[in-house]
Amino acid sequence: HFVPNLTIGAPVIESLRKHTKAYLDCHLMVTNPSDYVEAFGKAGASGFTFHIEVARDNWKELIQNIKAKGMRPGVSLKPGTPVEDVFPLVEAETPVELVLVMTVEPGFGGQKFMPEMMDKVRTLRKKYQSLDIEVDGGLGPSTIDAAASAGANCIVAGSSVFGAPDPGQVISALRKSVEASQIKS
Ligand SMILES: O=C(CO)[C@@H](O)[C@H](O)COP(=O)(O)O
């Protein structure tokens, strides 16, 4: 109900958790993220990322609750939201540990990467050297270098991985680009 689509909820996280110790990075595109903290924590989510656009009045409490339930807090911003809006959350006494810069209008996979969002990534990386900066939307072998060289170190990729004949090869290409950019910086 923040975006016009429905995908994965806490029951899926719970089922996955029975089979893996992997980091389960959950991006909640919902209008009321507070209502889901407990369920996602219980289900075994590792990270809980909410949208700044729906948490302008309660982000401090939300971050604290996420941490109290044993998850890493993250904040996401839509393409039209200025990057400055998340600075207070990164600089708070109890800060977010990840910023997710949306590189498409959230809601659907398979959209085109918005290179102009890289200014936000560069700004964040310059200001916060050790922050996890995630990008989501249209990432794949042809767009990864732009994101990685801007400073993104967490990459969300749907179509480019699941649509590839060899998904492992795409994942390694994405990882190599991020690692190469980190060595240079
Ligand atoms: O769900 C969204 C946006 O809300 C997608 O951005 C996927 O998370 C990634 O999909 P691709 O863009 O990689 O196909």
In short:
With 185 residues, this protein is of the alpha/beta class.
Reported for the largest beta sheet, the result is: 6 strands, parallel
Ligand types: 5-O-phosphono-D-xylulose
The low-confidence parts are none
What's the CATH topology label of the largest domain?
TIM Barrel
Helix percentage range: 25-40%
Report the total helices. Answer: 8
- Supply the CATH architecture of the largest domain: Alpha-Beta Barrel
| Computed Rg | 16 Å
Task: Please indicate the percent range of residues in DSSP E strands (runs of 2 or more).
Answer: 5-15%
Order of helices and strands: HEHEHEHEHEHEHH
Find the CATH superfamily of the largest domain.
Answer: Aldolase class I
Can you list the strand order of the major beta sheet? Answer: 1-2-3-4-5-6
Q: What is the CATH class designation of the largest domain?
A: Alpha Beta
Q: State mean pLDDT (0 to 100 scale).
A: 96
Broad shape: globular
Structure classification: alpha/beta
Number of domains: 2
Distance separating the two termini: 39 Å
Number of DSSP strand runs: 6
